[in-house]
Design brief:
Length: about 120
């Protein structure tokens, strides 16, 4: 690559970077009627294992992460094992019942998840 080609390539990269930076800092309209970021939006549905799901899942993420999954029993088993490995507290005798609760409420045949759009919390 010639010196001129390298100079042109660097100039193009710098211009593209400047353009991307300008785009990312552009003000995005945020309607005031949206809930503030961090608002607890939707609890887990009622059921015998709701308290276990609350304790095991909500220490690390919101219910929205769980609600959007739509997994089979085999998939929920794999996810549950992974989360227990990462520190989720689920007693051995509760695991099968928790998986059944997740499949019942967030299985593949359930309605599709509709996320709630939030606005930044006020300063």
């Amino acid at each position: 690559m010639s010196r001129l080609s390298r100079v042109v390539a660097v100039a193009v990269l710098l211009a593209a970077g400047a353009w991307l930076l300008a785009q990312s800092s552009a003000e995005v309209p945020r309607p005031a009627d949206l809930p503030a970021l961090g608002t607890r939006l939707t609890p887990f549905p009622p059921g015998a294992m709701k308290a276990v799901a609350d304790e095991a899942c909500l220490n690390c993420h919101s219910t929205d992460i769980t609600r959007q999954q739509r997994l089979t029993q085999k998939q929920w088993t794999a996810v549950t094992d992974k989360m227990i490995g990462w520190g989720a507290v689920v007693k051995g005798e509760q695991k099968d019942a928790l998986i059944a609760y997740l499949v019942e409420n967030f299985g593949p045949e359930k309605d599709r998840f509709q996320p709630v759009v939030a606005r930044p919390a006020p300063p």
